[in-house]
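Below is the record:
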Amino acid sequence: MDKVLIIDASRVTAYFIKMTLELADFECDTAYNLEDAAKMIKQNKYFVGLSSLVYEGHESGDGIDLLVNNGIPAIVVTASLDEDQLQAIQNKNIVDYVLKKTEYSEYIVRIVKRVYNNRRIKVMVVDDSITIRHWISDILQRQGLTVLDAESGEDACKVFEQNPDIRLILTDYTMPGMDGRELTAKLRVTHHMDELSIIVLSSDEDTRTAPLFLKTGANDFIHKSASVEEILCRVNSNLEMLELLEESRMRANKDYLTGIWNRRYFFEYAEPLFLDLEESGRKLAIVMLDIDYFKNVNDTYGHDVGDLVLKGFSARLSDYFDSVGLSARFGGEEFTVIVEDVDPEELEEFVDGFREIIEGYSISHRGNTIKFTVSLGVSTNSSLGLDALINRADALLYEAKTSGRNKVVCEIV
């Protein structure tokens, strides 16, 4: 992880910020003057910097300039801030400001985390005015976001098609051709509010405009007279909400112990593939896997070691198979994989390659070397449908278990 640079003449303040951020797992460097800060910047890579405004022998705001001029997103830390000072620092293209008060400690973590996460987030600004597009884009780029732009609704659809990983769109209402409301409605057909956030920017004074957009599917509505600070707060809140929803989805869809997909998500992923099977012409296979004699591991070494075995097995399972499909834990020591587009003639050899990996794998625990093997059943008879194919692969797995274990029984249809 890249580091945070804290510049503050007050050792107490610098220590407080450092401890606050380190508790949130950020690595921090501290400098108590601008000269030391400049040396650190030459020697290290920082994804964000926090600086106070005043240093002895320097003009107010020189610390911010040092960060910005070196391409480091800057957060101002100050004891107080009047309107004139606020205007002055906002002209320096800062990320945000925080006050030197203990009640702001949570916000410090929040804004630093926001800048860190923004580095992998794409947003799009849609407006027929190039001046507005550049103004909004500049505000967002300060936050470390990757910003794309479009001059119309039609252009926005093309940009989005080429960049489906865009997470947030800020769009004008009134534009030639497809306006902001039509764009919002079109995007909502394929992308729900918990996947893509849409914020509408408008100078329209009609009190019905905001409700109209919100009912169409916009996540938020901002009047163009809003301050830069308000725009940033709204953008950050929308991105944080998307992340919370994504985290919630992950918790619901990932196995709590191993971190790989669970049974519920496996069916959510696999069912559309089978529904589209005839039209797509894809070749699918189901692999059912079971760790051999897993009960003996628990009985001999305890459930803690059994958990280590499951975690180690799952990590290798996903590393091996996830490039060609999706792996999941069905429960206990039983796992399944849906394999896509592997040549049937090569499938058995490919699956057996994983069996060999597990056969050569071991876990060390308190002086003990724990080795284990896996049995696998594989079927490509996708015409059976998903449930029946799983049952067929499970029957082949049972055959592998009863005929000696540590083997693959494969049925190619």
Q: What stands out?
A: The chain has a mean pLDDT of 92. The first strand starts at residue 3 and ends at 7. Residues 228-253 form the longest helix (26 residues). The domain at 261-411 is CATH 3.30.70.270 (Alpha-Beta Plaits).
